[in-house]
Amino acid sequence: MKGSSTPGVEGDRALRDAGLRATRQRMTVLDALRERPDAVTAQDLHMELRQAGEPIGLTTVYRTLTALADAGFLDTFDREGEQAFRLCRDVEHHHHLVCEVCNRVEEIAADEVERWVHEVADRRGYDVTGHRADIFGVCAACRG
Ligand SMILES: [Zn+2]
Ligand SMILES: [Zn+2]
Ligand SMILES: [Zn+2]
Question: What's the pLDDT at 65?
Fold first, then answer.
């Protein structure tokens, strides 16, 4: 995990750090993710970019999202067997609240989870290298 408290990432630096050249298409993908509160699949993002007049291919969108996720810049979510991606504001380790209606994602810190993870692992003699715990539900706006 990164120790920096800088929110989000700067486009071209993020790409360089991920070992990717900052092409216009890749910057477009990153810009599209920057302000959105929801996690998005490669197909949905591709469709939106095309509708906005961006001449970008689905493969490029998919590869860029995957490379950025592999480099730790994006968090990934499983949506009915498809991967959805989100650029989280918090670069520190965190958990998520995920709305299953509008796909909005909120980042949350969860000290209880961290304590529980280490207790369980210690008890079984494991060294913790990672864990995931996201909460799924229906957000306040969607509940009306
Ligand atoms: Zn996140
Ligand atoms: Zn919602
Ligand atoms: Zn945690």
Answer: 94
Task: List, as ranges, residues with CB under 5 A of the ion ligand 1.
Answer: 75, 88, 107
CA 103 / ligand 3 centre spacing (Å): 21
Nearest to 68 by CA among 24, 105, 18: 18
Q: Does 95-143 carry CATH code 3.90.25.10?
A: no
Spans of all domains in the chain: 11-86, 95-143
Ligand 2 center to 98 CA (angstroms): 8
Confidence of residue 102 (pLDDT cuts 50, 70, 90): very high
* Other beta carbons less than 10 A from residue 42's beta carbon: 21
- Ligand nearest to C-alpha 90: 1
- Predicted TM-score (pTM) above 0.85: no
Q: In this structure, what token pair is assigned to residue 64?
A: 């860029």
